[in-house]
Design brief:
The structure holds two protein chains of two kinds. Chain A is mainly alpha-helical. Chain A is built from three helices and no strands. The longest helix of chain A is centred in the last third of the chain and has 25 residues, at 79-103. Chain A is flat, with a radius of gyration of 20 Å. The chains are: A mainly alpha, B mainly alpha.
Amino acid sequence: MSNHDHNAHGDANAHGSMKSYIIGFVLSIVLTILPLVIVLNDLMSKTATIIFILIMAALQFVVQLFFFMHIRDEKKPRFNMIALIFGLVILLTVVAGSIWIMAYNVVG
Amino acid sequence: MFQNFIDFMLNDFFVTGDPLILGAQVSIALASVAVVFVLTYFKKWRWLWTEWLTTVDHKKIGIMYIIASILMLFRGGVDALLIRTQLALPNLEFLHADHYNAIFTTHGVIMILFMAMPLMFGLFNIVVPLQIGARDVAYPFLNSLSFWLFFFGAMLFNVSFVIGGSPDAGWLAYPPLSELSGSPGVGQDFYIWGIQISGIGSLASGINFVVTILKMRAPGMKLMQMPMFTWSVLSSSVTIMFAFPILTVTLFLLFIDRYLGAHFFTLDGGGNPMMYINLIWMWGHPEVYIVILPAFGIFSEIVSTFSKKKLFGYKSMVFALMSISFFSFFTWAHHFFTMGSGANVNAFFAITTMLIAIPTGVKIFNWLFTMFRGRITFSQPMLWTIAFIPCFIVGGMTGVMLSVAPADFQFHNSYFLIAHFHQVLIGGVVFGYFAGLYYWWPKMFGFKLHDGIGKWVFWLWNIGFYVCFMPQYALGLMGMTRRFNEYNFDMGWQPLNVVSTIGGFIMGLAFLFQVWQIAHSIKFFKKEKSGDAWDGRTLEWSIPSPAPMYNFARVPVVTSQDEWWEEKQRIANGGKPKPLAPLEPIHMPKNSAIPFIMSVFFFIAGFGFVWGWTWMIVPGLLGVAICMIARSFSYDTDFYIPVDEIERTEAAALKGAN
């Protein structure tokens, strides 16, 4: 690797095909419209709606990562993948840890 | 109208009615006039602007970080001595309660965020590109922006001392005291905005160094061949990347509470102040590892250099560093065992806290075994390293005592805790960064610091430290709690407090000796002729001191750990020096005024937010946006150093060497 390779865009990685972009686009649109339809037409109970929206959000995240962020195409060593996983671990710790600690808190 | 303005200025804007602060105001005004006069008299304005304020050179940015942190060390140190003076005798009325609260708050914030962090970033900047054979960091413009955001954030925080009033809710600003109901003044807003603005800089620096280390290493240098300091910077920077966003969000929520009347952490309206404590320590605990990890790296470099041996257990050291930066995210609740989250929560966090002591212990053994049967030279950096080891072991062991949750109900918020964290932060972080400063000083400036005065500095710091903090362990067990500004005669705490105060002043004296040492070494300047001041092992010692602007005339090719040492050994054993590749023009980033100007606008916006002045917030943020746009449309950002200029620079450096 050149020592002063400043332009990160110069990566030789091919950035997906037309087909994968269209699939990603359609999937993300569907995942956006579904919750909207459910909410507007009152198709589910309140709890079920919330859970459904959260699941759609998580799937949306995955779609974005695979089709637009090209997480699969990364060359080794996979620093982006490691950072992503570590980020998710920290996220989980912050959310679950806070809920756990605050749930047993007898002071506040 | 005019009368109203005068009233506002005297009653709210400027802090009035305290002789100590009046003295500070006068001396700040005089010092500013003196600086302006000197710069004008010697016609140095242009030099200051083109050589320093707009520079993107990592070495100069590093030096500016270090200068700023030494100024902050002075201010934080004066705060510390005021605290110790007040506590020396029972019922002393040297500082009244409000003033005392402000002083311990600013002491804590300044020492961690505006002294330790910039000193750390200063060393990162100076050393990392040189150690990995790079010509600059990955994003030189961002690097300059990081420095100026830190600088103006720190200034915004410090200005509260004379304008508007200092924050006084403790260094982590726990609500409900830090909410509008508890702190109606602007001090707390200075706290929020000073830290937020410099926090952007810290986060950007963290990202910058992760990318630099992963992407900019000299050809051939594998990750497992990197110098240990570079590894420690990597582990610290990764921790910064994941911890600082938590701080930003937490302080932002507090800001929304104060500014827009929300109820995240208030006592009423469904808020929960304990949530703030939970969140702030998710940043606060990794933060202490962020500052200590690079110190571990510095000690590793120094121990190996001055024992003339390869570092013992390189792989276990790497593993220890990286596992500490990972586990540091899972121990935060040990800061509030007494909050009352029950036995299960406390047991979990007590165990994770004890676990994290293991990799730290591994490191201690690595350093000891590196010294074992080595040819040790007791030069200044090595002295600090040797003093660090026992000091940090004691500090670490009292930390393990604190991690026992049931026992912590006794130690919590007592002087035992104060003594513990000062022991790991002074004995670990400060000693570590001083060691690094003495070690890399010749690389920064081309001369060594005076040895004789250095020994005085070393002994005064060490004696002062133990005299100051050992009595505090006892005071804590005797029941003395932190943040009290006075105590009664009948508590029996006076003798130990007097001893502790004497120790504090010995450390103050040590700082004065340090200033003298630097001044003396500049006056009797003795050029360090070889670039290799300590017979070093890593790449930074293979180039002249101070390093030329482009660092390496030829990019080194690395084949082993301790590349420079191996090369020297090879030549000493009759090997031929590597053939020199022909010089090529060097691609370098151009200086830019945008980081400085943008940070000034950030300061203006922050100052506007503090006072709630929309007429100041809008132009401030607008200026920030314009600077960003200007940067994205500037294409003329780099240049090439021609070969004949490199030849001239190298020849001049060689002449200095002979």
